[in-house]
Write a structure and sequence with these properties.
By secondary structure, the chain is mainly α. The protein contains five helices and three strands; from the N terminus they run βααββααα. The chain is 67% helix and 7% strand. It has a three-stranded antiparallel β-sheet.
Length: 149
């Protein structure tokens, strides 16, 4: 036979041995009906025998393996991965040096091309400036000076 009682959060907590906040969470989780009394206290319709908390099982839900065994397997896996990482880093160090050397060669070649192109452009600019310079005799220079004023 079910015995449903109308109790406050504090009364339920005292009977179950939990705090009032834990009772509020329990009421929300089980969707228990609540009613506000005239004294502004909330009453909950509850069957305490049905809601009593059950202790958690002592064993792990994952294949019932002890935690220490799982930790030992994880530590062994981490050690193996760290050893693999060290080996890969050692192998890649040689490749990195080769890559850096090859990259430096490409950069030196590009710099040499740019220096040669710069020298060509400088000589071309000097030739253009020389060609643009007016070539006048003394007499022509004086006429140009008269026209400017």
């Amino acid at each position: 036979m079910r015995t449903i009682e109308q109790l406050t959060y504090t009364e339920i907590g005292a009977r179950l041995g939990i705090t009032a906040e834990a009772v509020r969470a329990l009421v929300r989780r089980h969707h228990l009906p609540r009613l506000r009394g005239n004294d502004s206290r909330t009453l909950v319709a509850i069957d305490l025998d049905e809601v009593r908390r059950k202790p958690l099982p002592a064993r792990s839900p994952r294949g019932h393996q002890p935690v220490t065994e799982t930790l030992a397997r994880l530590r062994a896996r981490i050690a193996g991965l760290e050893a693999d990482l060290a080996a890969v880093q050692q192998r890649s160090a040689g490749h990195r040096a080769d890559y850096e050397h090859e990259r430096a060669d490409h950069m030196v070649a590009a710099q040499d091309r740019l220096v040669a192109e710069l020298e060509t452009l400088r000589s071309l600019l000097a030739a253009i400036q020389e060609a643009a310079r007016p070539r006048t005799s003394w007499l022509g220079g004086w006429r140009w000076l008269r026209k400017a004023s």
